[in-house]
């Protein structure tokens, strides 16, 4: 009788790990959250967080992963019972995805508050220094990225540059707004920058989920949006400095 219970416990753990590995294999977002969660925990060890703060950090990571697994289960159950589009099905999936969104926002805000005191004082000047850096460095970076991208597309024999929804305009605009807000507010209110970055990522993720753009198109759009905005700020900063007596 005792051996049967031990076997049941072992089998339960085996089933749980099998389910976790299967979820990681089929759900890209879960893999991303697990990877980011591991990085955050490593940062907590690196910054030597107090035990209570480190415990909160681990619980936040677990919360995000649990809600993502819950969302995956709901989507699988819905798809199991119906294969036709229905507005109620869409709402069930959206509400389930909202649990992940709420947990991620909560984790980011609390995580920022936990880590903020460990950032060096000059950290808040990061975006201001970026705006004041030489404009030609950003221009060269933008040129090199464009050139390397064209070569990459040519090597894999696909259409180049703009065609095929490349780059994602929505992603570019979202991250451009994030850079603008960061340059204007990061020094005094860095939390605003973090929240706008979250919204930009949400916009980009939405384009992927709806199969409007690929990850490649999203990333290239975000990079171009960031670099073009930085270049614009640098040029404005340069002419403003020259115009002042």
Care to describe what's here?
This protein is mostly helical and about 240 residues long. It is about 80% helix and about 0% strand. Helix 4 runs antiparallel to helix 8 and helix 7 (about 170-185) runs antiparallel to helix 8. The chain is globular. The N and C termini lie far apart (about 90 Å).
Which helices and strands occur, and which strands form pairs?
Elements lengths: L1 H25 L1 H19 L4 H31 L5 H29 L10 H7 L2 H21 L13 H17 L4 H20 L5 H29 L2
Which bin fits the share of residues in helices? over 70%
The number of E-state strands comes to: 0
Globally, the shape reads: globular
Question: How many alpha or pi helices?
Answer: 9
Low-confidence stretches: 157-164
Give me the secondary-structure category.
mainly alpha
Distance between the termini: 90 Å
Strand content: under 5%
Q: For the report, how would you describe the main beta sheet?
A: none
Instruction: Report mean pLDDT, rounded to a whole number.
Output: 77
Q: Please state the CA-atom Rg, rounded to the nearest Å.
A: 22 Å
H and E order: HHHHHHHHH
Short description:
With 245 residues, the protein is mainly alpha-helical.
Relevant terms:
245 residues, mainly alpha, 81% helix, globular
